[in-house]
Amino acid sequence: MAWRSCSVLLRLTGDEGLRSSVRGGRWPQSFQQRCGFRKAARKPESKKVEEELGPAHSESSEAAAQRRTPAPHWDHQAPPSPPRAFGRLVRPLVFTIGFTGCSFGSAAIWQYESLKSRVQSYFDELRADWLEKVRPQKRGDIRKEINQWWNSLSEGQRTVTGIIAANAIVFCCWRVPSLQRFMIRYFTANPASRTLCSPMILSAFSHFSFFHMAANMYVLWSFSTSAVSMLGREQFMAVYLSAGVISTFVSYVCKMATGRFGPSLGASGAIMTVLAAVCTKIPEAKLAIIFLPMFTFTAGNALKAIVAMDTAGLVLGWRFFDHAAHLGGAMFGIWYVLFGHELIWKNREPFVKLWHDFRTRRGPGGGEGGGGGDRGGAI
Fold first, then answer.
1. Region (Disordered) spans which residues (predicted)?
2. Quick one: CA torsion of 168, 152, 232, 122, rounded to 10 degrees?
3. CA–CA separation, 7 vs 299, rounded Å?
């Protein structure tokens, strides 16, 4: 049943056009009309202010009537010339390697601390259960109902709740007119932009369209139970965050190679990693399209179809989706299940031991917690 509910595979590749490569550094006219990214009338004192992605198309009267937020102004920046184009990717490459390493290192420490505090949490839960029995029950206690709902969720669903909340907050920030310029600079990834590194991770939490965000978050929610039960919450978070940066870097490389510069945003690259990892680990699982539950197919075949479609889109130059980011996420997910787990996660014990020794020297009573830390590193 869980697999049926999570089979929005065909939606996943529909990045709502926002992870698209735009020819000539221009937004498509339909995108400008939907998003309200319009160029304001030029004033004599602001002749040097240009939009970063090129001049906007003329808007229709209907689109002008529906305008709700002022258009952000951009400092004009031409796409880099071929000799120095790939030189701009050195910093993003270093950032990708460093961020991925920090993600897995933090996940290993997180698991160590979780195992260390598990015994204390067990006694706290016993005390809470005893107090719950002694304390008189309140009718309509909202806090109790929320706790019951939270406890009814799987570990995977509880893990991705924070990710979904972060995406919702960023989506609301897109609605604030005064934040438009800041959001476009830091929450959209474009190799021709002045800001290259921070948008590689921030854009993975960014959606301008509600449908775009809802479709991506539904897929993430549906696959979360299987992915977290397979990897564990700490390793899952490391893989997800690393996938967001890696898929964006692949998008950067392809845009530099093809010369099709344009902004990209959305969580599809990271979600493709989760989807590919689950489909690679459990290829015989049955999936179905949400609106056509009578048609089922295996997870392995679904992954092959998605990779084939994104490959065709990349080769043929389709510009509606950021196919390079999708492929980058899918390839990372497949690689991690087949090789990365053995190379990275199972070799984390020396790092955890260093952290354990550091904690033992610093904190009192560290010797007791040390045994738990060693066990966490060996799992």
1. 33-82
2. 120
3. 9
Residue 131, pLDDT score: 55
Pick the catalytic residue from 226, 268, 323, 356: 268
pTM of the complete model beyond 0.85: no
Q: How many CB atoms lie within 10 A of CB 91?
A: 11
Average pLDDT of the segment spanning 225-240: 94
User: Residue 371 is encoded by which pair of tokens?
Assistant: 């045994």
Which position has the token pair 């539904």?
218
Grade residue 115 by pLDDT with cuts at 50, 70 and 90: confident
For residue 141, what pLDDT is reported? Answer: 72
Judge contact between 6 and 219, C-beta under 8 A.
yes
- Report residue 251's pLDDT band, with 50, 70 and 90 as the boundaries: very high
Can 268 be counted among the known catalytic residues? Answer: yes
Q: Where are the domains of the chain?
A: 84-121+153-280+320-361
Q: At which residue do the structure tokens 């530099």 appear?
A: 256
What share of the chain has pLDDT > 70, as a percent? 66
Place of tokens 């870097």: 249
CATH superfamily name and code, 84-121+153-280+320-361:
Rhomboid-like (1.20.1540.10)
Closest to 245 measured CA to CA, from 53, 107, 86, 101: 101
Given pLDDT bands bounded at 50, 70 and 90, which one contains residue 16? very low
